[in-house]
Amino acid sequence: MTFKHITSRDNSLFKQLKKLADNTRERRKNNETLLDGVHLLQAYIEHFGLPKLLITAEGESTYEVGALLQELSDVPTVMFTTLMFAELSPVATPTGILALVDIPSLPMPEQADFVLMLEDIQDPGNLGSMLRSAAAAGVEGVYLSMGCTDAWSPKALRGGQGAQFVLPIVERADLVEVTQAFGGQTLATTLAGTSLYGMDLQQPTAFVIGNEGAGLSEALITAASQQVSIPMIGQVESLNAAAATAVCLFERSRQKAASTRGSD
Amino acid sequence: MTFKHITSRDNSLFKQLKKLADNTRERRKNNETLLDGVHLLQAYIEHFGLPKLLITAEGESTYEVGALLQELSDVPTVMFTTLMFAELSPVATPTGILALVDIPSLPMPEQADFVLMLEDIQDPGNLGSMLRSAAAAGVEGVYLSMGCTDAWSPKALRGGQGAQFVLPIVERADLVEVTQAFGGQTLATTLAGTSLYGMDLQQPTAFVIGNEGAGLSEALITAASQQVSIPMIGQVESLNAAAATAVCLFERSRQKAASTRGSD
């Protein structure tokens, strides 16, 4: 294997990749993003085939990274200095491999039974965790409001651990419209709703979850068919938005599993 | 109100506070930490009284911060330059108020019915979210392994949103010993256990949860009475550790609530 070895920050490819790493608008304009690490890259390849470009760093690499570079020797590869590589990576301890890929687009099912809508989630790690929970709980599609952080940023991808590759995601959606058009119950999670555990979640269900600090907008609460809450028995009265999402989504899995078992 | 106004990074108080902000060992040595923002500070005051020192920044402050400074005018207060203040704050958009406090210590109940043990959690935001979920779900005590990130770091405090002020927490615990000594079932969460939903969680229960990447150590899995898993029906087979913790802890709340209702 011979890599193109780039050591200048003035290199135009480096500058372009840096823009992609840092800038939502650039990612959207080009429909491209960067994947960080062996795990994400393998998940991508499994679903969509080879990346457009591999990016690696000078110096020692792990056995895992070396093996993957060898396996993907047909893919154009560049090598940057350690410091330049670190500038492109979303993590404090870079994994040693990045890949440039097209942002995939999975078709939203025409009639989804289990949907998640997220309003104005700010933290990319939180958003990634929510998408990961959604993919694990069997959500069929996710809608993100205009004010949500980019689902395809390196940090959100890292939090999602591959969820973005299996989950149809519509960004910049008008959630009030989506709520009104949904053919089932739409449950707005607030601190003043009916107990989640009293709801029949086996019917077609959309959970509507709000911003980490501000909660859901009045417009969305009004558009939803009902408000639900997670009963809290402790001295703290709210959950991290990603934790609350996991509890809601998995309560549906639990009810489904219980009804399949024919008992509860 | 007149504040001591400090503009030099060489100021010894600034240097000491910077050490506390950045350094676990320093926090442990002095048994002090920094709280960031009005919400955390109010929660602290509610439980433990006044902070030792207030820290604010030059320039505009929010109405909330101004009102709190006025209310706490008996507490010594210093004002730093905006840049110096930002160096002490764990967040990208500083809130405008920090407080120096003693790290509180809440007594662990002698016989706890609901316990959480966390092994080697690395991410302070994740740890904070787990503590917040624990406090909301009625956990009575939390044990953290030697390898866990500091529960009293500014980032973990921010993630906990006050959970650290209501939850007895033992840091640097020998979790194998704690598991063996616990007077109830100890459930190790893994990807290869019995379904969480089939467990009777109304008896005294400790959940044992592992590292974000590596999962639980063999020693702890062996020490626990049983392995449990959250059944996943989607295409992604694991959850963020904080999301998994929330699902496990709230399944116990659900079972308790269901038995109180006398149905399910």
From TrEMBL, chains A, B:
Pfam families hit by this protein: MRM3-like_sub_bind, SpoU_methylase
Domain tRNA/rRNA methyltransferase SpoU type residues, every copy: 114-250
MRM3-like substrate binding domain: residues covered: 11-99
Keyword Methyltransferase recorded: yes
InterPro entries found in the cross-reference section: Alpha/beta_knot_MTases, MRM3-like_sub_bind, Ribosomal_eL30-like_sf, rRNA_Methyltransferase, SpoU_MeTrfase, tRNA_m1G_MTases_N
GO biological process: methylation
Protein origin, superkingdom: Bacteria
Family note: Belongs to the class IV-like SAM-binding methyltransferase superfamily. RNA methyltransferase TrmH family.
Official protein name in the record: TrmH family RNA methyltransferase
